[in-house]
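Why do we bother with a discrete structure alphabet at all? Because it lets us treat a fold like text: something you can write down, compare, and reason about line by line. To make this less abstract, here is a complete entry for Tn3 family transposase. Read it the way you would read a sentence in a foreign language you are learning: slowly, and without expecting to understand everything at once.
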Amino acid sequence: MAQRGLLTEDEHQLLFGVPRQEHLIIKHYTLSPDDLDLVLRKRGARNQLGFAVQLCLLRHPGFGLRLNEAPSREMLTFLASQLQVSPHVFEDYSRRPQTRLDHAAELMARFNLRPAMQEDWPLMLNVAAEAAWATDNGVEIVQAVLDWLRDHWIILPAPARLERLARAGRALARRRAAEALLAPLTEDRLKAIDALLVNDATLKRTPLAWLRDIAEAPSTANMAALLERLTFVRSLQISPEIVDRVHERRFQQFVREGAVAPAFLLDEYSVRRRRATLVAQIIELEAKLADAAIGMFDRLVGGLFTRARRRQERAYQTTGREVSRLMRLFHSTITALSTARATRGDPFEIIDEGIGWSRLIKVQPHVEELAQLADGDTLVMAAAKFMTVRRFALPFLDAFTFRSTSRRNPVLAALNVVRESLRSRRRDLPQKPPLSFLPKTWQQLIMDTGQPDRRLYETAVFAVLRDRLRSGDIWVEGTRNYQRFDTYLLPPASAPSAIADLKAPDDADAYLAERSQLLEWRLKRFARGLSKNAVPGVSLRGEELHVTPLRALTPPEADRLDRDLDLLMPNIRITELLNEVAQATGFARCFTDLRDGRPADDVTAVLAAVLADATNLGIERMADASQGVTKAQLTWVHSWYLREETYKAAFGAIVDAHQRLPLAALWGDGSTSSSDGQFFRTGRRSAGAGEVNAKYGSDPGVKFYTHLSDQYGPFHTKVISATTSEAPHVLDGLLHHGTGLSIHEHYTDTGGATDHVFGLCHLLGFRFVPRLRDLKDRRLATMVGLEVPSSLQPLMGRPIRADVVRQGWDEVLQLAASLKAGTVAPSVMLKKLSAYKRQNRVDLALQEIGRIERSLFTLDWLENPDLRRRCHVGLNKGEARNSMTQAIFAHKQGRITDRTFENQSYRASGLNLVIAAIVYWNTLYMGCAVEHLRSQGWIVPDELLTHVAPLGWRHISLTGDYLWQHAVTGAGQQRPLRNVRHRSAA
């Protein structure tokens, strides 16, 4: 079987080809005065041009002029113009082959160049292997070899030989990495690793398959299963320190291959490669299982308190009639006592006569019960179900070593008390267990009888442990999601240069002085505007601000134009549309093989797998409904080609191509975006399904949180719990989204706005524009020494704590720089900050910075109707997209039945990729339709087109049989517009 090339055709042209773009030709082939002097010494125009061509080709790409090779027309024309000769004279060059050889020898001698020798090849192989130590990317490996050759003044060998050498270097790097991973292991360890691929009669599968089967639904049985797997992995005694022996990227390549490859495929690997892949899997599984166990602990403990609150609410709701009856009885009692006082009668006789003393005595227990219910603490109700957690509490505590910055952390001391209590099975706790870390009300409940209540204490300790693990205040080594807070940040050595790129003030005092001056000026201007009724749509009535809602500005003519364009759009199947967009944008080539980085040979299978995710149809049912692809093909492609980074690259290809369409520029320049979450119900409760959210009804579900550019292209999507706040995820899509968009202004709904997000957006250079509601409940920040107009005093909140900003300024800048550098996702850090239950310097400083920026933005919002309108328009684009989403994601009644976040993420990515493809195709043909109308004499102003969205789908057949082979044969041809008669232009 012939080996697949290391490079694609485009990559081959990039490295070895003569450029055709004007700016690259100018860069590489402009002759210097010395070059011209050398060239013009040759006799005759043909020799001068031929000599110049050889000179330039020796410099770039570095091969010189090879036998029977002619340079590109663009290059010849450019060189001929510099020499003031005709490019056609080159046709006469080298009639005598000796002339070409003589010129080549002269140039080699002048520039001290030489051809590659036999002794150079081992050195080149080593260079390729060193480059491949950190990457599998063919371009990077070959480029390293080219750089070495150029540094040593060696003429490049043939591209095919260089490519073979680079492939051999990559194989050598893989072999060295495998040897490095296996070197510390004994023969017994290696045999235990080999046994992972042997079917186990007890497990009824291979141990590896059993380890990979990680349940995510929170239950005590699943927690026990996770801890059992974690114990098994640790028994293999593979030290995580082995990872330091190889480059991180090379190790991750072993991890990713091992996670995808089934046991039978791993069994076919060479012994060295198979064992190294399994070692990487074991190390990865240990961290993954640890994270999963702690995450399940988080959900189980959180579920105790969530269910306790619900039981309390339901119990209180069911007593509504009883409360009403008792309140009427209480009212009658007060009336009787008032009568007794007014008449100076005996109150007991009046009560007994009007109400009945025995009746009052009878309801006393009910009154006490209702009082306890109303005043009841959720800790008590959660502790009533603590046996759920106690079933796995001791194995969980024994499985991990919890750490803190303080050696005498009271939470760690409390964990030791609980652990010893569980081990000894004693009913009583020590007389004075650690309590200082608990709220005062909980301390009183626990010590109510003088002796600590064990059930309440254990419940409280686990609740606090959950919060501290979330924030990073307590961490577990060997995990990924529960490390110490500062391990996620840039190291101190590299932080200063990254902080300098933020363009933020060097110190907090400079920032505070500048923002204080600006805020004071803005407040005074706003007060003057209010006093003169010069703030459009805003008035101050008493102590409350009132903002008049904006009216829609979409003219009726835009709706008519939208309908007219829709009538012209060609009818098309979704299979044909995806094929056409793939040819136009090249997005299908972004789905590369996990092992060698090559694009898929079978583009049809890639598109079918993406559509299976997008429509919620699934692999098996997509294969049943398709002609031209099989289930085996789709399963293989989905496993080896579809993943987070390839979806991200595909988004970038479509969005960047969409930006280049003329019509797209009318909707925006790609500098603004919006984000919002869309709810999808799940078929069952799972780890991916959040608790029931009252906003979406009683069904559990998740949200697809999507970022949309001002040109309607979705460029980032993420699955989040239906109950979680959207705010931590706003920055995820703005940083490192992988497209050519340069976002400066971003819109969200009110749910996406927190002080943390305001502060970070300012430091990272984004203008954050959330849609503000409930303005009358919001307060503007003031600062010490700042003059606030008297009319605005009712709108002002507490002063900014400047000392807090100063103390945490450096750490906040380090956090912002780390997010910009991509060392950690913004949502991870924002969740940790929001989880802090005690004072944290970074958290408090960022909140204060956010309050300043929120106050300045609020003034912008109030004074600037255009800003409010831009925000509404941006968010409306996302809401309009939601209708298309529901039309595409229609199978299984639009419910997500995938049980893991990973599979749900594939669904979200596939859905938004297909939407991006439809938006591109619609924009392309809407542009054709506009040109057609204008050619027929219609007046189609650009102002109307700004109100027309590329989100229609009535002309697209989204369901039915998927005829992929038919779609391939028709791709690449311009479709005619529909031949529909239009009424004459108004």
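What the structure line is telling us, in plain words: The radius of gyration is 35 Å. DSSP finds 41 helices and 17 strands in the chain.
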